[in-house]
Amino acid sequence: MSNGLGLAHSHISKRLDALDFGALLPGFHRFPFALYDGESVCLGNSEIKWDERFTGNTAIKYDGGWLAIWKLDGGDHDWDRMTANIVHEMCHARQCESGAEFADEVAGMFYPRDLANFAGRHAENLLLARLADDFRPEGWAEFAGLRVARRKLMAEAVDFEEKTEAIEGEATYAELGALKILSPNGYAKKLAGELARLRDMSMIFDVRLSCYSSGAVARMLAAANGAAAGRAGALPAPAVTAELEAEFKKYFGAIDGLLASAMAGAERLGGGMELVGYDPYNVRASGNLLYHPSFVGCQKKGEKPRFLMGRFVTAMKGRSLEIESIYRVPAAAL
């Protein structure tokens, strides 16, 4: 067994022993987990050769059950923090086991570039951060009203957010709960980071990542104050500021530039297949093009899925998972 993976698995297992999973979330229980690198996968008492099932940090179906997996990079590790990360992925295992409804990732990849909608979401996030410092029932009602207003105008976008908040926000909430037990200082730092993300205007455009924070903090507020978001009357939409517009242009201009540079030196590999694997944290869209910075999974009808490692661009057929063309991006192109 790889000494590094095995030792890391032992460090994390001992810390997991100290956690009451049911106290973190009702009905939550411990799941098996695996650590992997580019060559091996450590399952605790056994080790197998790495294969394409072990991609990303997530939960996968394995040996008739659900398995939390994490890619272990080199260098020093904060084992309390790593354990909390594993708890996050175990929460996803629980969600998969219980049949939780996940967000439509196509809607996330092609989330609309609507400036007024981002202004509304930024107002919500600022309010959540303020409520974390000083909870007021009227502020909680205001948050619900802002969300109702956006849902009336951008129902699909808000549906993506709320389902992502339910899944990733819950997992981040469990992660915070584990860290609070294992390392109070680590918990304080992690929570401060989540609140800083909510306040940071430049972070609002990465909607999926933003939902980790908004979902976790909203759940934390509800648990601490007996509050439930519920439905409320719509509030007037917040004004679009010049600062927000400038950040909007900067963020999406950088993505459009990235895709343009990638395509300038890209090699077409084929097409007529389905997108079956990608990194939802880091995929970026410009028109019908998706940039994949580390890997992409594709599958032709009647064939086994293929996972390609490296940088790729996929040209999609509309808002779907159908790949019209796939391109390999050489490192020199970026």
Oligomer: single chain
CA radius of gyration is 21 Å
Specify the biggest β-sheet. 8 strands, antiparallel
Helix content: 40-55%
Q: Number of domains in the coordinates?
A: 3
Mean pLDDT: 93
Instruction: State the total count of DSSP E strands.
Output: 13
Strand content: 15-25%
Please give the count of helices: 10
The structural class is alpha+beta
Order of helices and strands: HHEEEEEHHHHHHHHEEEEEEEE
Low-pLDDT windows of residues: none
Terminal-residue CA separation: 38 Å
Globally, the shape reads globular
Summarize the structure.
This protein is of the alpha+beta class. Helices cover 49% and strands 18% of the residues.
Your description of this structure?
The chain has 334 residues and is an alpha+beta fold. It folds into 3 domains: 3-98, no CATH class; 105-225, no CATH class; 249-333, no CATH class. It is built from 10 helices and 13 strands. The protein has helices at residues 3-16, 21-24, 79-98, 105-109, 115-133, 137-153, 155-182, 184-199, 207-225, 242-264, and strands at residues 33-36, 40-42, 47-49, 58-62, 65-71, 267-270, 273-277, 284-286, 289-292, 295-299, 306-309, 312-316, 322-328. Strands 6, 7, 8, 9, 10, 11, 12 and 13 form an 8-stranded antiparallel sheet that branches. A 5-stranded mixed sheet has the order 3-2-1-5-4. α3 packs across α7. The model has no long low-confidence stretch (mean pLDDT 93).
